[in-house]
Amino acid sequence: MPIATRHVDAGGRRTRVLEAGRGEPLLLIHAFPLTADFWQPQLEAPPPGWRVIAPDVLGPSETSMDDYAARIEAVAGALGLDRVGVGVVLGGLSMGGYIIFALVRRARLAVRGLVLADTRAEADTDEGRAGRKKMMALADAEGAAGVARDMLPKLVGETTHRERPHVVATVDALIASNSTAAIKAGLASMMTRPDSTPLLPSIDVPTLVVVGEEDVLTPPANADTLARGIRGSRLARIAKAGHLSSLERPDAFTAELEGFLREV
Ligand code: MLT
């Protein structure tokens, strides 16, 4: 399936958006510190009857999850997705999930279903915030390459490290394509995000929670909390995948996604 690249004016911010497939809108929000290309496997094989839309999210001027959510809303507006009567299905992995919680809280975009992959509802702990500050200093000192070296061991699972070196190389290249300023803004946004746990009982659209069984950043226990908190949600565990489950095991991830979308 050909992947189209376009640039839209999202509230005054030029934003690159990748798109493939035709049909109902499925808007996918990537993890930190990556880009829309993270969703390449899902863009190459869009679920039948669905139009996959993946915007770049990171930028130097966004400093909160609300800023990212506003950017997503602007992209949706520029593409006319806000006029789709039944709403869009939003999917997000890790930071993409944090942004989805901000979108749900703001309630400006009509949403028909959610896919929350390798993410968590909780805010950062004090220890987590201290780690973000260290990472900011590393980004200042060594740029994206230093951040990639630090994060890669945990971003992908042990099986991927052992058996899928091409995936590790892809993630490394995606991190390197972000500027130091955008990475630092991402860290600042994540460390100040609110706890979304109180939001979970109010989510009343069909929701798929996905987690890689080897995810050490947002482990299966986080997914269990999400699935317990969101009434009627469905939980899928992806074997032999770590934190970036959609890229590490696209076959298994997309099978779960397609099964969910058939029921939305
Ligand atoms: C991500 O994958 O988006 C980040 O690792 C999430 C985080 O650091 O909290």
Q: Please give the largest β-sheet.
A: 8 strands, mixed
Distinct helical segment count: 10
* H-E string: EEEHEHEHEHHHHEHEHH
Give the CA-CA distance, first to last residue: 23 Å
* Strand tally: 8
Q: Approximately how much helix is present in the residues?
A: 40-55%
- Rounded Rg: 17 Å
Instruction: Please tell me what the overall shape is.
Output: globular
Spell out which ligands are present. D-malate
What structural class results from the helix and strand content? alpha/beta
Low-pLDDT stretches are: none
Chain-averaged pLDDT: 96
- Strand order across the biggest sheet? 1-2-4-3-5-6-7-8
Percentage of β-strand residues: 15-25%
SSE diagram, text form:
Elements: E1 4-10, E2 13-20, E3 24-29, H1 40-44, E4 50-55, H2 65-78, E5 88-93, H3 95-106, E6 111-117, H4 126-155, H5 158-163, H6 165-176, H7 180-191, E7 207-212, H8 220-229, E8 234-238, H9 245-248, H10 250-263
Parallel strand pairs: 3-4, 3-5, 5-6, 6-7, 7-8
Antiparallel strand pairs: 1-2, 2-4
Helix pairs in contact: 2-3, 4-6, 4-7
D-malate binds next to loops.
What does this structure look like?
This protein is α/β, with parallel strands linked by helices and 264 residues long. The protein has ten helices and eight strands. It has helices spanning 40-44, 65-78, 95-106, 126-155, 158-163, 165-176, 180-191, 220-229, 245-248, 250-263; strands at residues 4-10, 13-20, 24-29, 50-55, 88-93, 111-117, 207-212, 234-238. Strands 1-2-4-3-5-6-7-8 form an eight-stranded mixed β-sheet, with helices on both faces. Helix 3 links the parallel strand 5 (88-93) and strand 6. Helix 4 (126-155) crosses helix 7. The chain starts with a strand and ends with a helix. The relative contact order is 0.16.
